[in-house]
Amino acid sequence: MFSFFKKKFGAAPTVSSDEQSSPQVDEVVAEPAPLPVAEPTPAAAAEPAVVPAAPAVLAEVGAEAEATETPEAPRKGWMDKLRAGLRKTGSSIAQVFTGTRIDEALYEELEEALLMADAGVKATEFLLDDLKRRVKEAKATEPAAVRGLLIDALSDLLRPLEKPLSVGEQTPTVMMVVGVNGAGKTTSIGKLTRHLAEAEQKVLLAAADTFRAAAREQLGVWADRTRVEIVSQEGGDPSAVTFDAVTAGRARGCDVVIADTAGRLPTQLHLMEELKKIRRVIAKAQDGAPHEVLLVVDGNTGQNALSQVKAFDDALGLTGLIVTKLDGTAKGGVLAAIARERAVPVYFIGIGEKLEDLQTFSAREFAQALLE
């Protein structure tokens, strides 16, 4: 059971980047004079904090989750939600196994169902070949048994995506979060921030989406809820805001700095260049940063989500994904396509608006929820 413990912070001030006297960042940024706050001691960062892969659960601690609750209870609740969320995707696949014979017609129907679920041609062909081998080795005679073997095959295909998110190896751990408008990027940052804050991680947010007022306000609401600090600037240079946030995070001994960036379509090359610039500026503010470049993708977009993964990965070098809005979609098979064609780790998946609806990704759980 992965537990979170609330840590009480003082009031969460909103820090204007103007107060940091930041340069207007171009390609070269001079190292600023250090703020008059001591750097964190080595002991503070000695032990990395890990946001583990499932079956550990990201659980809200407090009035909503009693200390007496068993580890199995919240995970069972999550699995129930995941099954319900993936019902539209899985129902068409499950119908394939309602017959009485294992024949070529079954495999043809399964191929069609997987393609309709946006698993993609490459992943579908791989799964069918692997499934036929498993059926032969197991000497299966019933379609129901084939479904169980498909769960095994899908679990193995998805397993390379299963990786924990680790923070604390660097102080601060700097995360740059990107994605297209409407993918749920800022909301996912808010949920992740609250999980980290409840795990006693000191978090600083950078509102680097400076040209959309609603983005700053939305991130500010999450900062208030989670009692973390936020660096923001209206209409300023996104790179300068991010630079200020990383510098402030280092000076204040923060564990994590998360930069929320403006939504970008991968086809908008001039805007993608802005993201590349932000990445370079972060590296100037702290050697080796950003340590995580996370892409938030909408599971409803199917193969377009795969295209986004490829484009953002080519431009920025992604380290992880957050796949949102899997509830109610008929295109949840896209994770199989991602695993086969661009296996960027999936740190979290989301199936709703509540905090507990953002959970660590488990290949086995996902396959079971989709196909059982």
UniProtKB/TrEMBL annotation:
Residues 345-358 form the SRP54-type proteins GTP-binding domain. The gene is ftsY. It comes from the Bacteria. Residues 14-24 have a biased composition (Polar residues). Part of the signal recognition particle protein translocation system, which is composed of SRP and FtsY. SRP is a ribonucleoprotein composed of Ffh and a 4.5S RNA molecule. PROSITE patterns: SRP54. Belongs to the GTP-binding SRP family. FtsY subfamily. The keyword tRNA processing does not apply. GTP binds at residues 179-186, 260-264, 324-327. SUPFAM superfamilies: Domain of the SRP/SRP receptor G-proteins, P-loop containing nucleoside triphosphate hydrolases. It is an enzyme of class 3 (hydrolase). SMART domains: AAA, SRP54, SRP54_N. The lineage of its organism: Bacteria, Pseudomonadati, Pseudomonadota, Betaproteobacteria, Burkholderiales. Residues 8-43 are annotated as: Disordered. It catalyses: GTP + H2O = GDP + phosphate + H(+). This is Signal recognition particle receptor FtsY. Involved in targeting and insertion of nascent membrane proteins into the cytoplasmic membrane. Acts as a receptor for the complex formed by the signal recognition particle (SRP) and the ribosome-nascent chain (RNC). Interaction with SRP-RNC leads to the transfer of the RNC complex to the Sec translocase for insertion into the membrane, the hydrolysis of GTP by both Ffh and FtsY, and the dissociation of the SRP-FtsY complex into the individual components. Its EC number is 3.6.5.4. Keywords: Cell membrane, Cytoplasm, GTP-binding, Hydrolase, Membrane, Nucleotide-binding, Receptor. It is found in: Cell membrane; Cytoplasm. It is a peripheral membrane protein. InterPro entries: AAA+_ATPase, P-loop_NTPase, Signal_recog_particl_SRP54_hlx, SR_rcpt_FtsY, SRP/SRP_N, SRP54_GTPase_dom, SRP54_N_sf.
